[in-house]
Design a protein that fits this description.
- This protein has about 110 residues and is mainly alpha-helical.
- Helix content is about 75%, strand content about 0%.
Length: about 110
């Protein structure tokens, strides 16, 4: 019990000395604090800026793709080949294909 209370007293005594030194060297303390804040800001800003640039590049590339293909961004281009019967497409077959596509890709 005595060791614990002695350690607590020593810790608080050390804090008092640290705060007294910081108060007497106010310019040095302020400079260290400003330096720490600026380094932290740089470390945080680089990934944020990189993410913003990557997002903008992706958006521009997707818009260029829309212009070249004349389709929606995430539209599905499907082909249907009826291999069961070598017949010509008629209205009934077109309706079947349309229903198949609507069931498979509702949105």
């Amino acid at each position: 019990m005595k060791k614990t209370s002695a350690r607590i007293v020593n810790f608080f005594s050390m804090l008092v000395v640290v705060f007294k030194r910081l108060r007497h060297n106010l310019g040095l303390t302020t400079s260290a604090l400003v330096g720490s804040i600026s380094i932290l800001a740089l470390v945080v800003c680089v990934p944020v800026f990189s993410n913003a640039v990557s997002s903008e590049v992706l958006r521009q590339q997707l818009l260029e793709k829309v212009k070249t293909t004349n389709r929606g961004l995430f539209s599905i281009h499907t082909y249907f080949l009826d291999t069961t019967t070598p017949s010509v497409m008629n209205i009934a077959n077109v309706d079947q294909v349309t229903q198949f596509i609507n069931r498979r890709f509702p949105s």
